[in-house]
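User: My notes are a mess, but here's the protein and S-adenosylmethionine's SMILES. Can you give me a structure?
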Amino acid sequence: MEKSTNYLTLLKRAIASRAVIAEKNTAYRLVNGTPDGFPGLTLDRYGGHYQLQFFGPELLAFRAEIVAAIEDTLSPEFMVTKFRLNPSGETLETPLMVVEIGSEDNAATVVQEGDCLFHVNLLDTVNPGLFLDMRDGREEVQKRSCDRDILNLFSYTCSFGVHARAGGATLAVNVDISAKILDKGRENYALNGSEVLPGEFFRGNAREYLEWCAKKEKKFGGIVLDPPSFARHKGTTFRIRDDLQGLVSLAASLLEPNGFLLVSSNFSGFSPKSIAEASLATVRSYSSNARLAWAHGQGSDFPGSGTMKESCLSCAMILV
Ligand SMILES: C[S@@+](CC[C@H](N)C(=O)[O-])C[C@H]1O[C@@H](n2cnc3c(N)ncnc32)[C@H](O)[C@@H]1O
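Assistant: No problem, the inputs look usable. Here's the predicted complex:
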């Protein structure tokens, strides 16, 4: 009984500490592991839908009490639990998903982030369609996009592109290897009333797109570079530790004067400082006056960012 009271108190405290974020957003992290008093566990809010994830075994035995505390405090319309480890404690690539509240056909919803809207589906894959820890980066891109052509590499569901267009970008080119993911991007454009402009969706390899732009002497006022840590494509392997700066270099060569480059990765071997220093040095080989606007990890809804494997992000904004 005592434990249950504690979870309720801890949850209420976590909710209260996100009150400012909740004023403009319906999607954010509500509980981020140990710093919120829940070791090995995260809770994400997507509107009235919630995603509980166990990254470690610490609180598995208290699952029922924690779910009850969430139900009491937040009255979810839908809630899924994702087990990111197997019974022997090994990390699962494809997590086991259990619907705790609501029905499977109610897993999709729409969330608000600033003045943009996004489709999410909590049962689609492990990622519902919007990476919550890039919210601050998207806000920054929106602020800097007015009257510029923006390139959004490794676009996923095009959330950066949507924000760029909301900020007045003349064009936001979204590049992703997956046609299915780009279709979700098109749905997000439609949801936000953004007409798709010619050339805004490119299905293919980000590196090849950059090389094509270099050949055509195409320039951009802003580029977002947020690759996965590891990917395979047509027999080639992308490893962020080895290959990131090659992409930064190609991207830097396409930047217009006064342009920006946002470089980001959730690879735990990087830190905001290391990604910023390496990327700035690379960009300076094209623009000697390039400077760092900021470098940071995840937002304030991710306390302890960078201290836990399941909660790390290195993000740097470079201006030329
Ligand atoms: C980490 S997600 C990017 C997240 C995205 N920037 C966001 O903030 O929503 C990685 C994306 O890269 C795409 N991808 C993987 N390899 C790629 C490649 N060689 N070229 C283009 N896209 C690729 C995947 O399909 C996936 O959508």
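Residues 2-17 form the longest helix (16 residues).
User: Great, I'll file this with my notes.
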